[in-house]
Amino acid sequence: MKIGFMGCGRMGEAMIQGMVASKKFKPSDIYVHTLTDERLKYIENTYGVLTRSSNALVAQEVDYIVIAVKPNAYLDVITEILPLLKKHQTIISITPSFTIEKLTLMTKGIPNIVRTIPNTPSMVGYGMTGMSFNEGLDPRIIDDVYSIFISFGACVKIDEKKLNILSTISGSSPAFIMTFMKSLMDYGINMGLTEEVAKTLTVQSFIGTGYMVQSSHLKLEELIDHVCSKGGSTIEGVEALKKIEIEKNIQHAIHQTTIKFDKMNK
């Protein structure tokens, strides 16, 4: 199985880094083209993958084509490679901007199309990817696509109509989570901790809490209660958060992401 990347921005590089680090893919099975020679050399030297001077040259050598350019360049890339595409090849989109229906129109009816939404923790092997497939896709292709994305994290198949919710919860949430982490770190620094100590405390608490939630059969409300002691200091903070309706306000804020996603797909 040979995989080609057309474009290699942050998400494309995150995927390549995760695939190579997993050792489930040989660098020699990954082909890349990106706009500048400087960027191309960096990707080649850093990850040992094969680079080509055009998207067309990549398309001629691979089974799976990951279009990793910005949405406004998708049509240009597809127009360049369309005359070269073979029936066995599969197009993988990683942008939230185009539905499978739109991608099918752009590719003049290419039968194998996969729409995915990975997130940036893919670069450290803890990515989360949602994926939707066009109808009638060969199960072998589905298995191959899973093997690509599972190499740098977890992945789930989801109804395309629900990708907007998935994109908010997993695609955008690293930014939301880091915003909360920043608040904790800034508080610690303002109260006299060094930045290093504040970061260690915050990061390890998030990692530990994530594992705790993942491994427990208890509901989140029960786990929260386990952290709080009656009359203790933690419950004071939790009650203060309830007074400012933090859950309602967070859900309102993140829903703006879903609204924007829907606008991008009209």
From TrEMBL:
Binding site for NADP(+): 34, 68-71
Catalytic activity: L-proline + NADP(+) = (S)-1-pyrroline-5-carboxylate + NADPH + 2 H(+); L-proline + NAD(+) = (S)-1-pyrroline-5-carboxylate + NADH + 2 H(+)
Record has Transmembrane as a keyword: no
Molecular functions (GO terms): pyrroline-5-carboxylate reductase activity
Main location: cytoplasm
Top enzyme category: oxidoreductase
Subcellular location: Cytoplasm
HAMAP family: P5C_reductase
Protein name as annotated: Pyrroline-5-carboxylate reductase
The organism of origin for this protein: Acholeplasma oculi
Taxonomic lineage from the root: Bacteria, Bacillati, Mycoplasmatota, Mollicutes, Acholeplasmatales
